[in-house]
Write a structure and sequence with these properties.
Keywords: Membrane, Transmembrane, Transmembrane helix. There is one protein chain. The protein is built from 4 helices and no strands. By secondary structure, the protein is mostly helical. It has one domain. Helix 1 crosses helix 2 and helix 2 runs antiparallel to helix 3. It is elongated and about 65 Å long.
Amino acid sequence: MTKWIRIGFAGPGAVIVALVVMAGMALWLPRGAAGIDNLVLPLILVPLIWAALFFHACLDRRIGRVALIAISLFAVHATLIAAKFIDRPAVAVEPRS
């Protein structure tokens, strides 16, 4: 059973968490001089984030620590993304006459 949980965190889990972290990084990274550094840097770092999560899931002896780190990264960045979408102001619509 532990083997399949580890495979889940190392395979599809690492990919999903890396993509969510990439999307969340754009919200907390500062903008650069051109205004696009917070968008480009996460795209470049996705393979590194995936590799770190993959090797951590494969090499750590304690599966609980793997789960804690992956789930907390996912939860923090998913919360940032959800807060960004919820924080949209309502669009004012002019009444038709």
